[in-house]
Amino acid sequence: MRKAEEAVGGRRGRCRLRGMGLCTGLVMMLAGVVLWGGFNTALEATNSLTFCLSCHEMRDYIYPEYRRSRHFRNPSGVRATCPDCHVPRAWGPMVLRKIQASAELFHKLTGSIDTPEKFEARRLILARKVWQAMQATDSRECRNCHDAQAMALADQRQVARQRHEQARQAGQTCIDCHKGIAHSLPEAFLEQEHERFEREGRPCYECHEDMARAPRDDGWE
Q1: Per-position pLDDT tens, the chain of length 221
Q2: 47: Cβ contacts below 8 Å, ≥ 6 apart
Q3: Global pTM?
Q4: Residue ranges of domains in the chain
Q5: Using CA atoms, how far apart are residues 61 and 80, in angstroms rounded to an integer?
């Protein structure tokens, strides 16, 4: 009799352990779902123009420049915002970019660009970091919207057609030429580029399209 009772008690104990194991597993699964959902919600919240503008440095220095660009307003009505150009769409690269961006909090806390003067002093450094990152990924974020293979070169203006064909032959990527699309170019960079173009004998209209129809022998080139 005692052995039978012990056997029944053992089975009940094992059932309780199994039940506790199942409950623990379910709780952990639910917790994982909640944490995963919260993590992704936080990622999405940081991938918005509203979040970017929560810093006065972005709102006061960068946003006015962006509002004057074709990425903000254009005939087609297609708008590219901060994350479209600066945050990868694929999950892995996006998380890596968020980790890298956490370093920017240090500069926020130390106030390294909290005045227009400080920002302008570091504009070229900051711009070059972005350009180098885009070159390293073959302008990945640009290609989310722009496909070089889909370009109808024959429908482009002569200057654009020539430059795109040259870029294809030279194996260049979008950011090699299309700097300053949504933000003002650093003055120091413009001076360096002007000097380089003069050394190479490049015509002005490669950048200044309003000079494409300049009269001959007027000294514009």
Answers
A1: 555 444 445 555 556 666 676 778 778 888 888 887 877 888 888 889 999 999 888 999 999 999 999 999 999 899 999 999 999 999 899 989 988 888 888 888 888 999 999 999 999 999 999 999 999 999 999 999 999 888 888 898 888 888 899 888 999 999 999 999 999 999 999 999 889 888 988 877 777 766 555 555 555 44
A2: 83, 87, 94
A3: 0.76
A4: 1-46, 51-145, 185-221
A5: 18
